[in-house]
Design goal:
Elements (H helix, E strand, L loop, with lengths): L1 H25 L14 E8 L6 E6 L10 E2 L3 E3 L4 E10 L6 E2 L1 H6 L4 E7 L4 E3 L14 E2 L12 E6 L3 E11 L14 E12 L1
Parallel strand pairs: 4-12
Antiparallel strand pairs: 1-2, 1-5, 2-3, 5-6, 5-10, 7-11, 8-10, 9-10, 11-12
């Protein structure tokens, strides 16, 4: 009789321990699937189609993950009546060496798109004032995602005559919402930078 009681007690103790352990494992929070993207340095590199020195403009986040945002460091100075290829260079420089974030944007190209706005008449191609206000406005994208939708790490531009104005580049993160018609207000804004634009 004592042996049966001891066996029942042991069985009860083992079951209690199992249930407690199983509940404890259920309470563990699942790990985050997507890490937060950190962009500390953005560079716009305009390369003339006919050769010559590239024109660069940059923005930098002075405190990394702190409260400050990316800050524009200078103006964009382009030659009049000249064709350029614009390449975006996005980095996370919290660690050394800097991590090139272009690769992550390319891997997640179906979730990202660059949008642009500029002073009316600054460019002969594309015409207009950019596609931030209206996604269907003309812009010359040289790269697309797996669905054939634009990305914008590489674009083409031809300046018009001499003028001054502004040039804005905005990166939208659009998981599950990017389509052929999605615009600059769909998804979340990773950054929006406005540069002074001088065409001489």
């Amino acid at each position: 009789m004592k042996n049966i009681f001891k066996l029942n007690y042991l069985l009860f103790a083992v079951l209690t321990l199992f249930v407690f352990t199983a509940c404890e494992e259920d309470d563990v929070a699942p790990e985050e699937e997507n890490e937060v993207e950190v962009f500390t340095d953005v560079k716009l590199v305009f390369t003339p189609a006919g050769g010559g020195a590239s024109v660069e403009a940059a923005a930098k986040d002075p405190d990394g993950v702190g409260v400050q945002e990316l800050q524009v460091l200078g103006a964009i100075n382009l030659a009049a009546n000249t064709s350029y290829t614009l390449t975006m260079v996005i980095e996370n420089c919290l660690d050394s060496p800097c991590e090139l974030m272009n690769e992550e944007i390319e891997e997640e190209d179906e979730e990202h798109q660059f949008f642009f706005a500029f002073t009316e008449g600054a460019f002969s191609n594309p015409t207009g004032n950019g596609n931030i206000d209206n996604a269907s406005d003309p812009l010359v994208y040289n790269d697309t995602d797996g669905n054939g939708n634009p990305v914008g790490l590489n674009t083409s531009w031809t300046t018009a005559g001499a003028s001054t104005g502004t040039f804005t580049v905005q990166l939208q993160h659009q998981p599950d919402v990017k389509t052929a018609t999605s615009g600059a207000t769909d998804g979340d804004t990773d950054f929006a930078l406005t540069f002074n634009l001088n065409i001489n």
